[in-house]
Amino acid sequence: MEDDEDIPALIEHTPASPRRTSARVPLTIICGFLGAGKSTLLKRILTERHGYRIAVIMNEFGDTADIESKTVNVSSPDDPTAEQSEEILELANGCLCCSIKDSGVAAIEKLMQRKGAFDHILLETTGLADPGPIASMFWQNEEFATGLGRDISLDGVICVVDAVFGKQQMEEDHSEDGIGESLRQIAGSDVIILNKVDLVDAEKLEDTEDLIHGINPAAPIHRTTRGNVDLSLIMGISAFTSPPQLQPAHLGHHHAHAHDHDHCTDADHTHTHTPDPTHYELRGISSLQVTCPILDQTRFDRLDEWIRTVLWENRIPESGSGTLQVLRCKGLVTRDSGEQYVLQGVRSIYDLAKLEGREDISVPQLGKIVLIGKGLDENKSLEQFCLWTCASPDIAGGTAK
Ligand SMILES: Nc1nc2c(ncn2[C@@H]2O[C@H](COP(=O)(O)OP(=O)(O)OP(=O)(O)O)[C@@H](O)[C@H]2O)c(=O)[nH]1
C-alpha cells in the first residue's frame, strides 16, 4: 500500500449534510471513449436537484485533472446549485484500470473514512479505460470486501458513446488482439448513453445503435443530448444484483435485420432497442444469447461448471484449447423449485446468486444467458451449452447468430 503522500489529493467542496448512516453506498462507473461526454454527464447529474449527497471520483489520464475538476465543479459562488456541492476526488496519477489500483483504492478508502457515508459515488474513468478490471475492484473481490467493500456496492457500469464519432471509432478500433477500447467499454457496460444526438441524423443514430446492440444486446440504449437522461435509468439500477434486462431470445432461423423506426420522431429520447440479431460479430467481439430451460439440481450444477470452464479456462467444456475471451456475461436462470438465479460476470469473475423473493412465481419462466466476447461461434458454444445443461438442443431452444 502506498503511503498518504502518494494518495491523490482530495479537493474540498462545501459538504452537504450526510443523510446516510448505514447500508452500503452504491457506486456507478461512467466510462466511454475520449470526448464522448462523460464529464458532461457527470455535470448533468451533479446539477440536478436530486437531493443525493454524491462523491465524485475522476480518474484522469495525463494532466487534465485540474481542468476536469473545474469543468465539473458545480460549487462556484455563481452557481445556484452550489448547495448541492459534492466531494470530488481526483485520481490523476494514471489509469485506474491498469496502473494505480492500489493508490486509487487507498484514496477512496480515505475519502470514506474522512467523509463518512454518501448516498452515491460516481467514478468517471479515463477515455481509454477498460471498465472490466475497475468493476472487478468493487465487486466480488475478497480483499476489497473486507476493507472498502464493506461500505461500497457496485451499482452499475454506464458507457457514454459519441453519436458523431462512435461508429467510426468502433469500426477503427481494432487493437492487436481484435478488441479495442471502445468495444471493451460497450461490451462491459450495463447501460449505454448514446450522446450528442443533436449533432447527427436519424440514419446515423440507427446505424450506431445497431453496432452497439451487436456488441452488447443486453444493455439498454438511451439517446441523449449533453447527457440529459432520467437519472433513474442510470443510478440505483442494481445491475449487479437484479435480473438483467435481456432481449427475448430468438428461436429458429435468423435473417438480416431491418428496424422499423417510423415511431421514432424525437431523436433525444429514451430508447430501448429490440432488433433481431442475438449473436453479431463486430471486429472480433460477438455476443451470444441463449434461452436456458428450467433446471433441476444436476443441470444447475452442470451450468455452473459450464460457466466456470468458459470464464476461467477460456474454452467450452470438452473442447480443446482455450480460444474464447468472455468480457461480460449476464443471465437469469430458473430452477425447477421456482427459484431464480441472476448470473453476473465481468471477465473471469462471476456470481450466480439467488434472487430473493421470487420463489412463488406460478408459471416458472425460462431463463436466458448472454455472453459477450470473442470466439463464441468458433467454439460452437450453443451446441455445447445445450449438451451440458439440457437433454437436447430442442429443449434449450436457444440459437445463435
Ligand atoms: N453538441 C454537443 N456537444 C456535447 C454533447 N455532450 C458533450 N459535448 C461536448 O463534447 C466535448 C467533450 O465532452 P466531455 O464531457 O468533456 O467528454 P469526456 O468524455 O469527459 O472527455 P474525456 O474526459 O477527454 O474523455 C465538450 O466540448 C462538450 O461540451 C452533446 O450532447 N452535444
Please explain how this structure is put together.
GO terms for molecular function: GTP binding; hydrolase activity. This is COBW domain-containing protein 1. With 401 residues, the protein is of the alpha/beta class. The chain folds into two domains: 4-233, P-loop containing nucleotide triphosphate hydrolases (Rossmann fold); 286-396, 2-Layer Sandwich (Hypothetical Protein Yjia, Chain: A,domain 2), CATH 3.30.1220. It has eleven helices and 14 strands. The strands form two sheets. It has a nine-stranded mixed beta sheet with strand order 1-4-3-5-2-6-7-8-9, with helices on both faces. It has a five-stranded antiparallel beta sheet with strand order 10-14-11-12-13. It is globular. Guanosine-5'-triphosphate binds at residues 32, 34-40, 127, 195-196, 198-199, 225-226.
Look at the structure and name the CATH superfamily of the largest domain.
P-loop containing nucleotide triphosphate hydrolases
- Major sheet characteristics: 9 strands, mixed
Query: Major sheet: order of its strands?
Result: 1-4-3-5-2-6-7-8-9
**What small molecules does the structure contain?**
guanosine-5'-triphosphate
CATH topology-level name of the largest domain: Rossmann fold
N-to-C order of helices and strands: EEHEHEHEHHEHHEHEEEHEEEEHH
- Helical content (DSSP H or I, runs of 4+): 25-40%
Low-pLDDT parts are 1-5, 8-22, 62-85, 247-283, 391-401
| Structure classification | alpha/beta
CATH class of the largest domain: Alpha Beta
Proportion of β residues? 15-25%
According to DSSP, the number of beta strands is 14
Keywords: Chaperone, GTP-binding, Hydrolase, Nucleotide-binding, Zinc
InterPro entries: CobW-likC_sf, CobW-like_C, CobW/HypB/UreG_nucleotide-bd, P-loop_NTPase, Zinc-reg_GTPase_activator
Domain CobW/HypB/UreG nucleotide-binding: 26-222
Domain CobW C-terminal: 302-384
